[in-house]
Amino acid sequence: MSNKEQNSDNKNPIENLEQAGMSRRGFLHGVGGASAFLGMTGLAGQAGAQEPPKDADGKVIPGFEKGQDDPNAAKDWQPVSDRKIRVGIAGYGLCAFGASFFYQNHPNVDVVAATDLDPERCAGLAKAVGAKKTYPSCEEMIKDKSIEAIYIATDAPSHARLAIMGLEHDKHVVSAVPAVFGFEAEDEAEKLFNAVKKSGMKYMMNETSTFHADCYAKRLQYQAGALGKIVYSEGEYYHDFGPKGLPGYNPKSGKVDLNGWRKALPPMWYPTHATAYYVSITGGRFTEVSALGTPGLYPEYKDGNNQHKNPFGTEIAMLKTSEDGISRMAGSWDMKNAHGEQGRVYGQKPHDKSIKGDRPPLPPGVDGGGHGGSHGHLTNNFIESILLDKTPIVHVGDALNMTLAGVVAHQSALKGGDWMKIPQYDL
């Protein structure tokens, strides 16, 4: 692949970008992750602990819980370049995501621009990341020829469209999850994949489970051949939205509110925190899926009479994998006492305790942050992929397979569990 400069054969499919850091250890100080939303202050320019974001019922949003420190992370970090990548950041939103991935602290980044459709949030993002220039929209920011890379932390329905536009304007792109969305997902996937291939730019999806300590350790085990083929894997993303729901960007109001894109969201349209527990470990693919759903507990799901035509509050998928294994992936917005992102992976061979599973070191000042200490690792991986001209850890093939597995699973659930093939994309 060549390296031009807001709102996913027999060649090993895993890039070994992180292998250089396998034996390094570092320190992840002070956690942070993100500030709260709707009237609360944004992240400061420096890393540090912040009040975690909460949903409408006052519950901490999964992934932003405190106590996620990794006692290993800025020790032994070695810079790969003294170059600074000029980055623009789009989107502040529900979890202040634009500021919570520590671009403003990375020694190889100059955050030069910020944008959000809401002027107040745009100003808050710019202050949080130290951007001197702001734009009224991501579309306008993308046209700035001085920007080399953009981080798209906007509402999920806009991710693919903005990523494609960024790639077409010769910008490296990192996007929040999911890579594609909803009714348009399969069409968007084709366009996004082709845009990545044609542009030669780097594209990465910020799937946080990829750098969860347990998931990353299993990845290294698998790469070393210690596990053999994965016989069975499972992943879960559970978050009871409650009767008030979870706010999201609402294009009708132009605000983050309870009638935004998250309202009555099919759980399997937001699957990647779960599906990463196979794809990010093996680099393999989900090939077919059968899924079932249960009627949502809250009124917004009744009879599928909502913006997404979705009756399900919980969806469970069984999937076939490219190495003849089986996966169970689950998402739920209404199960009581079910919480968080987690997974389990079982291979033909037992876990080898002699293989180190440490995550790579991080630059001083870049925390691991939220979602199990993954935020800083995703940012560092994306920046190093540009500097070293390497494939990012969650490249377009992985991103699309993780996402489309869920999209097709929802289609299967609507049909009562029919087995359906998942579109395949890989570079």
Explain this structure.
This protein has 427 residues and is α/β, with parallel strands linked by helices. The chain contains 9 helices and 14 strands. A 6-stranded parallel β-sheet has the order 3-2-1-4-5-6, with helices on both faces. Helix 3 runs parallel beside helix 4, helix 4 packs antiparallel against helix 9 and helix 5 (213-223) runs parallel beside helix 6 (272-282). The longest helix is centred in the last third of the chain and has 19 residues, at 396-414.
What is the strand and helix layout of this fold?
Blueprint: E1 85-90, E2 109-115, H1 119-129, E3 133-135, H2 138-142, E4 149-152, H3 159-168, E5 172-175, H4 185-199, E6 203-205, H5 213-223, E7 230-239, E8 248-250, E9 255-257, H6 272-282, E10 286-295, E11 312-321, E12 326-332, E13 339-347, H7 370-373, H8 375-387, H9 396-414, E14 420-421
Parallel strand pairs: 1-2, 1-4, 2-3, 4-5, 5-6, 7-12
Antiparallel strand pairs: 7-13, 8-9, 10-11, 10-14, 11-12
Helix pairs in contact: 3-4, 4-9, 5-6, 6-9
